[in-house]
Here is the input.
Amino acid sequence: MGRIRVWAGLLSVVLAGPALAVFKCVGSDGRVTYTDGPCAADSRAQTVEVPPPLSPGEEAEARRRGERLLDDARELDTRRSAEAVERQRSLDADRRVEAQLREQGKEDAEHWSTVYPAPIYGRRWPPVKPVQPKPKPVQKDSLGKMNAYPFR
Here is the structure.
């Protein structure tokens, strides 16, 4: 029974070797293909080195790190949700205050419109007279340089 396990282990190692080989094939049109088999005749082939599999300790550490990152992301999401709820509550409170002030302003406007039927703001005394802009001075045409010479 022990020999069968040893032979099965050796056979799996031998068969797993080619499966770990990865080739990068760059075709004549520039397209890149990754394959575990040989490349086509019209493409360039490069071998890509595959890192060895992780040890159980490294794998466990990677899982712990991944879980820690997920926990941090969940905590951040919860915090952002709470901040969004608080921001919405603050906005709602501000809107309620603005609505109350508008209602108060309407009541004040109704009150003052009965006391003063005409508005008293916006008038100027004495009235402002519009001022006309000064006309721009017209330049006289000067004689050209050629007209100043005594040629006839």
